[in-house]
Amino acid sequence: MSRAEADAHGFGARVLDTLDRWVPKPAAWAFGFRIWLAMVLALYAAFWLQLDSASSAAVGVAILAQPKRGQALSKALYRFLGTLIGGAVAILLMALFAQDRVLLLVGFTVWLGVCVFVAQFLQDTRAYGAMLSGYTVAIIAVAHIDAPQTTFDAAVGRIAAITVAIVTITFINDALASPSTWQGLCPRLAAALVSAKSFAREALTKGDPGPERTAVLIGGIAPMRADAGAIAGELDDGVNRAAGARSAIAALYVLAAASRALAAAMARLREPDPLVREAHALALRAVSEDRSAEDLERDGARLRDLVDEGLKDGTRPIDEVMALQRALDVANAATFAEDGLRALGDGHKPLRDTALPTHRDFQVALRAALRVAIAFGLTAGFFILAGLPQTSFALVQVAATCALSSVTPDPKKFARGVLIGMPLAALCAGTILFVMLNGNQGFPLLAIALAPVVFLACFLSLNPPTFTVGFITLVFTPVLIAPENPQSYDPQTFLMNALLVVIAAIILFLTVRLVLPISASQHRAFALEEARRDLVEALSGEGGDATARTSLNADRLVQFSAWNSGSGAVRRASLHHAFALAQLEAAAARAHAQLRQLRPVGGLAERIGQAREALAAGRSDGLDRAAADLIRAAGGEGREVRLMLARAATDLATASRVIRQHGRFFRRLSRPSS
After folding, report:
1. Which fold has domain 184-346?
2. 156: how many CB neighbours lie within 10 A of its CB?
3. Which residues are CB-contacts of 619 (< 8 A; sequence separation ≥ 6)?
4. pTM listed for this prediction
5. In this structure, which of 13, 21, 324, 618 has its CB flanked by the most CB atoms within 10 Å?
6. Taking the CB of residue 165, how many other CB atoms lie within 10 A of it?
7. Where are the alpha helices (DSSP H) in 207-237?
């Protein structure tokens, strides 16, 4: 190939790469068409029903715009519930404070702060529903502060418009075969399982990959939790598919932790006996790529036999018991992961259904609530003192944008997107009103004029870096157009509304940076404080379900990794301590769970009491003695009791080793409680 041909070939490749990057895919065009059609139909239905707030139907469709059917259904459900609650509170506040605007605004500010605070402790669309119930009061009560007698009608109209939006977008998604969430999650979960098995094989053959590699692994697993929560309403067997996805995700967390624990146990054994070597080989085989469900079941049964055989005489060293038990844990995690993935694909009832709680910091939630309340209060005071027209419209936009920012992973990034999206929405709305429509009243022309903006906003929202810009453009363009019959073309009103939404964006941008900002070091400190409280609960036997705690700790570690900063050595040390904290908490929760099940067994009451006391005290020597006592007691018990004793002794010994290795860190961490 000549140089000219090579240059031409390279130029062509660059052009194709650019086109592939910037030209929307067919799926993006289909998504844009569905949202445009749903928005037009919702607006037409609202006009036909003669709803007072017809534009709310179009805005509702814009807010519910999701590329997957399950995501839209989940968000629609909590949007409806949030609107009902917000409408009821709006009527109540107006009934109490209709004659006193100051008290009405104070009451709304308190309610908005409470809703934002509660939303911080919920997940995904449930958090959105809680936050929505807050600013819905602004849309209904604050927007009608000059006409309190219309509040009830406004609430009914708002609920009716939201209902129209939900019915319309659900119908369009079903009629046009919107992609299902579970179909998109299946390949992602399968890929995560392959990565987790590869991680486990590396741990079992080469040694512990370390906390940084583990953080990367769980960082790829954690985002799938949101999709798992949106599957239940998609199909008749959606509940089973959702449970399977949750079970598989939880199992992947456990697989990463158990494989590291088995690698550490094997490293402590200089010459493993044949029983331990066989268990290690079975665990390694369980995480291979070619194991069927029947193979995994046989491997698990053989590993349970090995654990039982290892405890029959009651004299086996604790390190060997730990290796046997951790090998069984690896096989069990692989079994649950494979079963959960199959349940997601075919809808059968999975082996278990487990929750996937997320980590939230009280201090972060409190600051988010106070930030929104302070921003709204200061803005309300400024607008009222300035005597600006359309103050109620501006307050609604400030409340909505501030509340929306509070449930996003990065409020600062969201605020930047709003700062770009609001002027773009104003430009699009102005172009539609005064260029494309230009005084005309025909609905078909309005539908055609909306299409380019809707498609552009959908394309932007599908690209993660520009999601907020697209979302704001899609939502606030119909807000500023305010479609009605007949359509109003008052340039003064439009310009004032456009100015006010841009001011709201600026207020949000300044708020997230100046009002109670939270630095990365504060995030880490808050997370460690919450982890300390959870650890105290786990050591005292109040840690809750161990599998759920593992998911909670995994989510906390993902967040901690994002906040971790400083030099490489400092980051590694911080992450190492965070993993140690999670390991100790999980071990304590599992140990207490096993000890509670063993309580009815005769002859073990004294040993169980000593083990629980050792856990509560957090002393490594006491935990070692308790673990050894349980192993000695196993010889005179039946098979099922021996298996429970093996799990309890393993977790007691794990807690002992973590405390001994990180004793200085745990002593420093416990100082705030003293």
Report:
1. Methane Monooxygenase Hydroxylase; Chain G, domain 1 (1.20.58)
2. 16
3. 659
4. 0.87
5. 324
6. 29
7. 211-221, 224-228
